[in-house]
């Protein structure tokens, strides 16, 4: 994935793309709600491109020579939100790289996972990159998410999958990220899915809800030579 050369995406006053050029669906839900799991399924059935804001930040954090590495590390450990200029720029760069690579293909469709987690990010992205089509919101109670994260922590190697960071991430989610969901809700731009059941059952509900919004799986046609 491309590194950051310079910031600036977030300060643009008009959007880089229009929703006619590219479809963006934000995927939100508390830590451990299952966003990444559901996104992987959606990628294989719908042809979405999946961009995880957290993964892009971790990649930038680990990139030798990154001037943002130390800062990102500190924010992630604390479960707080990295200043949006960095995250918006990383997302824009990743979208550009994908679109460049797939030029001439069908209209690109992105799932942007774990973003926007704060109102300023939501506003900056929609103003300067592209307005989203809607937000897929995975709704899950904290006790279920907590259990999943503790299990994930046994193998994920993530610095923030420990009890102390998990508690902080829950707080940030409720106080900082839920207002984003609430704002999109008022614009009728939230598709809510219950995320407590098994990944397969949650996925069935996801597919049904996407269909209601006019989004269908791609049907692969096998041509016999
Ligand atoms: N993060 C951020 N801005 C974003 C997305 C993520 O600052 O837009 C940071 C934040 O510190 C968060 C961490 O990255 O707690 C991990 O995010 P990720 O999406 O990987 O966590 P998940 O929701 O999958 O548990
Ligand atoms: Mg994730």
Summary tags:
225 residues, alpha/beta, Rossmann fold, five-stranded parallel sheet, 5 strands, 12% strand, binds uridine-5'-diphosphate, binds magnesium ion
* Number of distinct beta strands: 5
- Beta-strand proportion: 5-15%
Low-confidence stretches: none
Helix content: 40-55%
Could you tell me the CATH topology label of one domain.
Rossmann fold
Shape: globular
Instruction: Report the top-level CATH class of one domain.
Output: Alpha Beta
Rg (CA only): 17 Å
Spatial order of the strands in the main sheet? 2-3-1-4-5
Span from first to last CA? 36 Å
Q: What CATH architecture label of one domain applies?
A: 3-Layer(aba) Sandwich
Overall mean pLDDT: 93
* Helix segment tally: 8
Can you list the ligands bound to this structure? uridine-5'-diphosphate, magnesium ion
Largest sheet: 5 strands, parallel
In CATH, the homologous superfamily of one domain goes by the name P-loop containing nucleotide triphosphate hydrolases
Structural class: alpha/beta
SSE topology string: EHEHHHEHEHHEH
């Amino acid at each position: 994935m491309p590194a950051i050369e310079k910031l600036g995406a977030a300060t643009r006053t008009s959007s880089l793309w229009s929703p006619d050029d590219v479809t963006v669906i934000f995927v939100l839900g508390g830590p451990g709600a299952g966003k990444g799991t559901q996104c992987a399924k959606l990628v294989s059935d719908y042809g979405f491109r999946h961009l995880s804001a957290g993964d892009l930040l971790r990649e930038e954090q680990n990139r030798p020579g990154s001037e943002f590495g130390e800062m990102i590390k500190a924010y992630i450990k604390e479960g707080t939100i990295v200043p949006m200029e960095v995250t918006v720029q990383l997302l824009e760069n990743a979208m550009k790289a994908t679109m460049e690579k797939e030029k001439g293909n069908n209209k690109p469709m992105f799932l942007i996972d774990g973003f926007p987690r704060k109102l300023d990010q939501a506003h900056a992205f929609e103003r300067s990159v592209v307005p989203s089509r809607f937000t897929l919101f995975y709704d899950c109670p904290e006790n279920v998410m907590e259990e999943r994260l503790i299990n994930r922590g046994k193998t994920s190697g993530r610095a923030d999958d420990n009890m102390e960071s998990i508690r902080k991430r829950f707080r940030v989610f409720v106080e900082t990220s839920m207002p984003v969901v609430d704002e999109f809700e008022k614009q009728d731009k939230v598709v809510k899915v219950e995320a407590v059941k098994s990944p397969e059952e949650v996925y069935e509900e996801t597919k049904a809800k996407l269909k209601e919004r006019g989004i269908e799986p791609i049907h692969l046609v096998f041509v016999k030579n």
